[in-house]
Amino acid sequence: MLRKCHDNKGAGHLGPTRTIKLLAKQCWWPGMRKDARGYVTQCELCAEGKTPPGKPQGLLQKVVEPMRPWECVAMDFVGELPPSRGHRYIWTILDLFSKQAHFVALPKLPSAEKLADLYVKHVYRLHGCPDKIISDRGVQFTAKFWGKFLQLLGAERNLSSAFHPATNGGVERTQQTLCQFLRMYTNYRQDDWADLLPFAEMAFNGAVHSATGRAPFEIVYGQEVAPFPRLPEWKEGEGQTDKEWPAKIKQGWQNVVEALRETQKKYKLFADRRRREGDKLGEGDLVWLSTKNLKLGFPSKKLAPRYIGPFRVAKRINEVTYELRLPKDLGKVHPVFHCSLLKKYKGTLDSGEQ
């Protein structure tokens, strides 16, 4: 009766409540509601074809907690844009402590070797070696050469999980501000945006950032940088000695650390209102994987399964990120996923399978 009232085409693989009501019209037995709910919960076709209702899984997690300028760096590319002086892409580099950014125009997406050369010319010469570099999973950032280059810098490579760009949310938000600036000032043909990048960088780094309550220039250099040709008025007796100046800057850094922590708490409180805590998964557990970002070869994505699997959890990376054991027929899909793309398997497969 359970198969008839749930699996049958006339029943439609509906949820527990509708299945129970359909059963009640046909028959009754002690514990029928419990049996029906268990049957529907373990139905593998429902698990493959249905998306869980409500808020997405995974509460906001802290990526890094830098303590000084240019200790943790995030980067990404904007493009492809209309040609401007032979350039079509913008390389965005962001310091996650001070929020200072650099915008570099590029003719094309660089190889790992070219990216290393660009980093030395545009970032290393100004700020030295970082401790961590965060990026997405572009071919430049996953290349062995880039990994070796970061080892020489003494930097740890942090890559975002598969199909979850929010890991690199800081630089994504910076790029939104950059594109907003370019929309305001570019001409009708949109072929002068490369000339606007120095002004965009000055405006961004000279403005007070909401996370720190200070301008990036002030955090890094200890003073504000004037965007207009007007000298500041200095009063007598306000000058700093060579010993007081470094102490003032470091005291400012401590204030920034406290401001960033407070801001992260506010961000988490706001973000978690629209999320829910994910399923507690451990090594060896079986999960379904969302097909939202996968190319499976079906004629229509609308009629394709919403989840595939189940696959076994190979490793728990952190509270919301897991590495799966994927079959080879999925190709070069990176096996690390955010829990919002996973759904705990509740079927009856033997624990020795998969």
From TrEMBL:
- The keyword Magnesium appears for this protein: yes
Q: Which GO terms describe its molecular function?
A: aspartic-type endopeptidase activity; DNA binding; DNA-directed DNA polymerase activity; metal ion binding; RNA-directed DNA polymerase activity
The Gene Ontology biological process annotation of the record reads:
DNA integration; DNA recombination; proteolysis
Q: Which species is listed as the source?
A: Anolis carolinensis
Question: What InterPro entries does the annotation carry?
Answer: Integrase_cat-core, Integrase_H2C2, Retrovirus_Pol_polyprotein, RNaseH-like_sf, RNaseH_sf, SH3_Tf2-1
Annotated transmembrane regions: none
Q: What is the lineage of its organism?
A: Eukaryota, Metazoa, Chordata, Craniata, Vertebrata
Instruction: Supply the name of the protein.
Output: Gypsy retrotransposon integrase-like protein 1
Record-linked PROSITE patterns: INTEGRASE
